[in-house]
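Hello forum,

I keep getting stuck at the same step: I have a sequence, I want structure tokens, and every attempt I make locally crashes halfway through. Rather than fight my setup again tonight, could one of you with a working pipeline run this one for me? It's a single chain of 146 residues.
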Amino acid sequence: MINNIKKTRKTTQGQIIIEELTKTYTHPDATELYEKVKKRLPKVSLSTIYRNLEKLVNEGVILKLDIDGSPARYDSHTHPHYHIKCTNCGKIDDISLKQNIAVDKIIEKKYGYKMVKHNVEFWGICPKCKDKSNDLQKTKQKTEPH
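Reply #2:
Ran it on my machine without issues. Output:
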């Protein structure tokens, strides 16, 4: 699933972080990963998790997502893709669209930068929150006098 794993010297902690990260699509933060890893390595510290996450990010094995001022989240899928954040519950999902490389070319031509990558943030209301909101509206309409 992750092609970049072979590029790095794997520590036990780093390998378990990668394994736990690849099991989820929730884009966990360091604390969430710490809780998962701690079940397998009870003596691991949160600082060890942070240190390994930064190492894995720097080596290109995982992505660090800094979205909308939230705590950093991590993604095992390193191929170029976009993300969307629910403005209600904070959930972050992958968007399976190819990144728009034409934007990079326009910026290179107009501003002279050599583009390395770009990040676009999308915000919306996830289906679960949308359904809750719709259910709440329906309940409210039924209980209000006409």
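Helices lie at 12-22, 30-40, 46-58, 101-111, 127-143. If your local run keeps crashing, start a new thread with the error log.
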